[in-house]
Amino acid sequence: MLSINPVFPLPFIVALALLAATISVTAYRKITHTNTTSLLYLRLLSLFCLFLLALRPSMKSVDYLTQKDRLYIVTDNSDSMTIKDMPNGQSRSQAIEQNFKRNVPLFEKLQKVYDVKKHAFASDLNQSTTQDISPKLTAIGSALKKTAVDPQIRKVKGILLFSDGLSNSGTSINKAIATLNKKNIPVYSITLGQESYQGEIVDGRITQFDCPQTIRQKNDLNLKVSFALKGFKGKTAKLQILIDGELVQSHQIIPSETEQSFEQELSLKTNSLSAGYHKITAHLVTNEKEITPLNNHFDNYLQVTKGSLQLLVVTTAPSPEFKFLNRVLSSFDDIDTDVPNPFYLRSEEGKKYLNDLNIEEYDLVIFQNPDLNIIPTSFIEKCQQSMNSRNLGILFSGASINSKFQQKKLLLDYLYTSQSTAKLISEPKHVSLTQQGSSHFITAFLEEQNLKQWPSLDGVSNTAQVTQSAQCLLRLDETPLLLTSTHKQNRSAWLNTNAFWQLVNHEKSKIACRTLWLRIIYYLTSRENILSANLSLFTSKTRVQVTTPFSLKADFIDAQSLPIKKAKVLLKNQTPDQQKHEVLMPYNKDFYNHQISLNTGGLYTFSAYSSWEGHQIISNEVKVHITEPRVEFDRILTDKKLMANIAKATNGQNLTLEELPELLNSLIKNAQLRTVSQVTSDKELWDNIFTYLLITLLLCAEWQFRRRKALP
After folding, report:
1. How wide is the angle at C-alpha 219 spanned by C-alphas 216 and 221, nearest 5°?
2. Confidence check: pLDDT of 21 > 80
3. In angstroms, what CA-CA distances link 267 with 131, 212, 238, 263, 420?
4. Are 162 and 136 in contact (CB under 8 A)?
5. How many CB atoms lie within 10 A of CB 395?
6. CA angle, 366 as apex, 361 and 367 as ends, to 5°?
7. How far apart are CA 303 and CA 311, in angstroms?
8. Rounded to an integer, what is the distance from CA 602 to the centroid of its chain?
9. What pLDDT, on a 0 to 100 scale, did the predictor assign at position 568?
10. Which runs of E-coded beta strand occur in 504-618?
11. pLDDT grade, residue 316 (50/70/90)?
């Protein structure tokens, strides 16, 4: 179809063209020359081409189409749709699929008269075949609202919603209904599932599984499982515990009621578990009539540690030094400290506790200046025997503790001085490093510390001489402060001041003091090699829920155990599907740290690395188990009332699967097909290079003709 789009109004262009033609004819009539007629034709032809150009003609192609109304089929794809409470033991999803197959002819007719769009939804609406949705949540409101605001411009006849109504996330359903009502879109809700238990329905469900995050190798593993059984009155179910997929314990459960809840505490031996992370599963074994198999198991991850140190602190009075020591020891993630209440150890029950204590469970005993008249001699003798067999380290802390053990003639092989004369310091004194201390594992890192700027330790000191078996590492002026010995191939140490707690409140010495204690502990337990890794990664939480923030920290020290503050430390994150990500960890308050939250459940592996002095330093691995909420099975009975309210509020209908064919026939019968015209192509005839070339050639020909014939 030919059409024009004039530059100016058409009458104006026609008048202008006639005026130009008249002027040209009048002007050339006055010229008397044999070739005037040819020149006039050239001029008029040029004007005609300009006239056509001003009209801007185009050729349009128009097609006539049949437009259909839009109809949406939106299907719930969440975990609750796997519940097998439909006829013939089918799940809710299987019942929908079978219904589609039975009504194929009707759906084919429907597609002929409607533009049918099929979507699935769970935590979100799946509008494409490549989009992922999480089946662990149901968001009916979000699905309806996103369907209502579909960008396609056409009339929407309705939405067929297949669901059990167990909405637990996403946009408010009331907001979605308001959006639907603005666009006059009805919802035809088809409800799946049972409103109440009918027939021989069996349901096993684990509601909680408590498991420690970390356990030391060979210690007993204590678990608590909460679960519920329905339909098992007088019948047998099994509770199984699996570690890394292998069955380690099984218990038979026979409920006495139709619907009954249980809480079972279990204890497992872990002698065969290697150090590292292990998947531990609680699983309910029911029978073939189970309607919700997805909530019959609960996974956790357990870290079995080999290097965690066990410490015992023995004291009989809550001194400032004891309180300081307790705070320092509790700050170490890889050290477990048993600190009995000092007043408890003064009681008969406390003495019995020490007598019955298995000293072999500990790596180090710290005697914090206790009253040896209270501590049972048999307990100290057990420490002596463990020291002799090289299974224990001992730290003596306190100025007068040396003379106390001498008087009782206990642990004499591991004492450092033969006599002592305690006195009270009256003048401020400073700490200095001895020659042995500058190269010793415990104190080598202090060499670059300005010890003279540490606060004076005003307290009780000891002026005794050092024995040949001991090494003096630190001095308070001329007074020995820290002594160590490897007598009989065992390790012991002695701190002869009760004023060491003052350092923790001094900003310049606080970090060094904490490091000093850590290195003392690792030296006495023969674990120096653990501290040889310069980059250490740790977190306070190894099990968190999705979207819950948690922090990862990295401790980076040099060969002298001094913190490295200006390094580029990168955190690696390996996801459960083996994807890897990296992020820079900023330095803040003595550590490199990074806060993170994750949206997908599973076991994540973290490690850190950095380059320092030409070497790449790699940290230990830290694993964090991200758990997802189990809200899909908090309710398993269908919410028919909600589905009916959605249909009623949008002027739709609430149906069962059996009533669906009647609805489809009604929709097919009332379908409206409209014929609409649509321009498929619009070609501008004037807008091309040939038009401009023709006008240019005509004007040039006229000019050349006039020049050759010497015409004006």
Report:
1. 100
2. no
3. 44, 12, 17, 14, 51
4. no
5. 23
6. 125
7. 20
8. 9
9. 92
10. 535-538, 543-545, 550-556, 569-574, 580-585, 587-588, 591-596, 602-612, 615-618
11. very high
